[in-house]
Write a structure and sequence with these properties.
Length: 184
């Protein structure tokens, strides 16, 4: 009789171990998938940039420095290793800032602002920037869920046994946290 109870307890413990391990793996996969969504949107933005630069170049040829910065950051983005999420986001944030300069050119060049191709590209890039922001939120939520499992009992024990490590959140750059300067 004791053997049966012992076997039942071991089976229950084994099933619990497997369930917790699978839960950890599932949240890890969600975190990886949410990063993949960011990567897809970054690639989409990188694919749109040459068209934007080409369309804008004809209207604002003397803004070469702005275009060069955008192209340089785009190329730099492709050189960052895929697993260096924080570095990729830093370059992405710089690229977003450089793209804002190109969007600002439209105010100085009414013909550019009226160009349908430019308007379409601006809209696509704006939508892509919004998708990147949403994907960053999804990544951080997924990372929080995964990290929570790594820190709570009993899954923290199983995570340590399997060498599972905490995932870092994507942080907002300090300059974006500051309140915008307003003058009257």
């Amino acid at each position: 009789m004791i053997w049966i109870i012992l076997i039942v307890v071991l089976v229950i413990l084994g099933l619990g171990y497997v369930a917790i391990y699978n839960g950890l793996q599932t949240t890890k996969v969600y975190t990886e998938e949410s990063w993949s969504q960011i990567d897809v949107q970054l690639k989409r933005r990188n694919d749109l940039i040459p068209n934007l630069v080409e369309t804008t170049k004809g209207y604002a040829a003397h803004e070469k420095e702005t275009f060069a910065k955008v192209v340089e950051l785009r190329n730099q983005m492709t050189q960052v290793p895929n697993d260096d999420h924080q570095q990729k986001m830093e370059v992405s944030n710089q690229l977003t800032g450089a793209l804002k300069s190109i969007f600002a050119l439209a105010e100085s060049y009414p013909d550019l602002k009226a160009n349908q191709e430019f308007t379409k590209l601006m809209e696509e890039l704006t939508n892509t920037e919004n998708k990147i922001a949403y994907s960053r939120q999804l990544f951080n939520s997924s990372a929080a869920s995964y990290n929570q499992k790594l820190m709570t009992f009993p899954s923290n024990i199983i995570a340590k046994i399997h060498g599972m490590l905490k995932v870092n959140y994507l942080e907002v750059p300090a300059e974006e946290k500051e309140a915008p300067k307003v003058s009257f």
